[in-house]
Amino acid sequence: MIERVKVAVVGVGNNTSALVQGLALYRQSGSLVGIRRPTIDGLGVGDIDVVAAFATSEEKVGRDLTEAIFLAPNNFPRLDCDLPRAGVPVTKGLVDASEVRRVAAALAGAEVLLYSAPSGRPETAQAYAEAAHTAGVAFINTTSDPVARHPRWIDRFEAAGLPLLGDDLASQFGTSVLHNALLRLLQERGLTLVSSYQVNLGGTEDFRNLVENPNTKKQSKLNALSDADSVEVAPLGYLPHLASQKVAHLNLEAQGWGETAVSLDVKLKVHDPSGAAGVNIDLIRIAASALRNGRGGHAAEATSLFKSPPGTAI
Amino acid sequence: MIERVKVAVVGVGNNTSALVQGLALYRQSGSLVGIRRPTIDGLGVGDIDVVAAFATSEEKVGRDLTEAIFLAPNNFPRLDCDLPRAGVPVTKGLVDASEVRRVAAALAGAEVLLYSAPSGRPETAQAYAEAAHTAGVAFINTTSDPVARHPRWIDRFEAAGLPLLGDDLASQFGTSVLHNALLRLLQERGLTLVSSYQVNLGGTEDFRNLVENPNTKKQSKLNALSDADSVEVAPLGYLPHLASQKVAHLNLEAQGWGETAVSLDVKLKVHDPSGAAGVNIDLIRIAASALRNGRGGHAAEATSLFKSPPGTAI
Amino acid sequence: MIERVKVAVVGVGNNTSALVQGLALYRQSGSLVGIRRPTIDGLGVGDIDVVAAFATSEEKVGRDLTEAIFLAPNNFPRLDCDLPRAGVPVTKGLVDASEVRRVAAALAGAEVLLYSAPSGRPETAQAYAEAAHTAGVAFINTTSDPVARHPRWIDRFEAAGLPLLGDDLASQFGTSVLHNALLRLLQERGLTLVSSYQVNLGGTEDFRNLVENPNTKKQSKLNALSDADSVEVAPLGYLPHLASQKVAHLNLEAQGWGETAVSLDVKLKVHDPSGAAGVNIDLIRIAASALRNGRGGHAAEATSLFKSPPGTAI
Amino acid sequence: MIERVKVAVVGVGNNTSALVQGLALYRQSGSLVGIRRPTIDGLGVGDIDVVAAFATSEEKVGRDLTEAIFLAPNNFPRLDCDLPRAGVPVTKGLVDASEVRRVAAALAGAEVLLYSAPSGRPETAQAYAEAAHTAGVAFINTTSDPVARHPRWIDRFEAAGLPLLGDDLASQFGTSVLHNALLRLLQERGLTLVSSYQVNLGGTEDFRNLVENPNTKKQSKLNALSDADSVEVAPLGYLPHLASQKVAHLNLEAQGWGETAVSLDVKLKVHDPSGAAGVNIDLIRIAASALRNGRGGHAAEATSLFKSPPGTAI
Question: With a CB-CB cutoff of 8 Å, which residues 163-182 of chain A face chain B?
Answer without folding.
Answer: 172-173, 177-178, 181-182
